[in-house]
Amino acid sequence: MATRHILFVSHQATRTGAPIELLHFLRWFKRNSDRPFSVLLGGGGDLVADFEELADTWSIDRSRWRRQALQTRLLFAAGLGAWARRAEAADAQRFAARCPPALVYTNSIASARAIEMIAPRVPILTHVHELGFAISTEQESALSRLLAETRQFIACSNAVRENLLRNHALRASQIETIYESIPVADIRAERTRDQVLRELHIPNDALFIIGAGTASWRKGTDLFIQLARAVCRQRSHACFAWIGGWPSDMAQAEFEHDVHVAGLTEKVRFTGAVLKPADYLAAADVFVLTSREDPYPLVCLEAAAVAKPIVCFAGAGGMPEFVEEDCGFVVPYLDIMAMADRVVLLLDSLECRVTMGAAARRKVTERHDVSRAAPRIMEIIERTIAVGERAT
């Protein structure tokens, strides 16, 4: 009998943490497993082609219906919206039903809408990359259904696991923590520090601090600007850069406004989305995570892979579980002055930066390479399939 396949569901294919983490795993899975798989995307993004290279892929993308509405000049947009949603659901269901899977692997709580559309009658395994605030923004009916129908959960950090236990009434036996992972050997700079600084119009002798993420309240982009002001008051030759895309033109205008009015135009740069973040991370002296909520961000692991110390907030997610006492500093939640003091300490001490950066590089290699995490995920997949088959 042919081996039944797995349907992997991602909420989108943007160049963000959860989709990138799924791509890392699927590349490993394709090399190391004979089990076939397909991919259902809740939306599009820059990484659609990367998923398509690996497997049969379908994207639920309303832009098709919007274009049709404009072309036909339909007057009843609300009616079209309802029709479009029914059409999307029907298409997704047909894609999922072409070859009934042995398991649906839901890569994030944000995929709940797609799961509601296809209504699978097979075991669901959900890999959770979200904490409380992000989960609270999901549609309640879709979220409730996903949580109720998921047989097994993987949490990307202990902070995520504790949130699921505390706030969603799950049993401890349902959740296993497997930390996020990256292909450590592939994370390396292709350009020199001088080249990166020249691109950003930053002096070669500057002390250089990096933050990252889709510019937003949750990622603390506003806090990054406040941090830049606090550090530059103490060390005038410090410069900052934020790598990551803009969710909207308005968000860009708001943050650029703050930089201008705060007198930081010469000190803070926004790169926008970049294809090779390792170039910028490797050029930095310190990586700062100003997120208000971040389960276990891949960019911190990438910064560790190029031997950078990390400064983050306590109570903001899982990164203190990585930083601990040896890879940087954990400061009280939203305490910008405490974060600034630790950044200045690192800027003033090359020995401290090198020692903590080396510890970060060692730790990410030993604990967070895809080759270590992926076999554990595969074991949970096969175990969940086996339990489902016995149940039927």
Record keyword descriptors for this entry.
392 residues; alpha/beta; Rossmann fold; 2 domains; 6-stranded parallel beta sheet; 17 helices; 49% helix
Number of strands: 13
CATH-defined architecture of the largest domain: 3-Layer(aba) Sandwich
How big is the Rg?
22 Å
Helix content: 40-55%
Structural domain tally: 2
Strands ordered across the widest β-sheet? 3-2-1-4-5-6-7
Spatial shape = elongated
CATH class of the largest domain: Alpha Beta
CATH topology of the largest domain: Rossmann fold
Q: What's the helix and strand layout?
A:
Blueprint: E1 6-10, H1 17-32, E2 37-41, H2 48-54, E3 56-59, H3 63-72, H4 77-97, E4 103-107, H5 112-118, E5 124-128, H6 132-136, H7 140-149, E6 150-155, H8 158-167, E7 175-177, H9 193-199, E8 207-212, H10 221-234, E9 238-243, H11 249-261, E10 268-272, H12 277-283, E11 286-289, H13 298-305, E12 310-313, H14 319-323, E13 328-331, H15 336-348, H16 350-367, H17 370-391
Parallel strand pairs: 1-2, 1-4, 2-3, 4-5, 5-6, 6-7, 8-9, 8-11, 9-10, 11-12, 12-13
Helix pairs in contact: 1-17, 5-7, 9-12, 10-15, 13-16
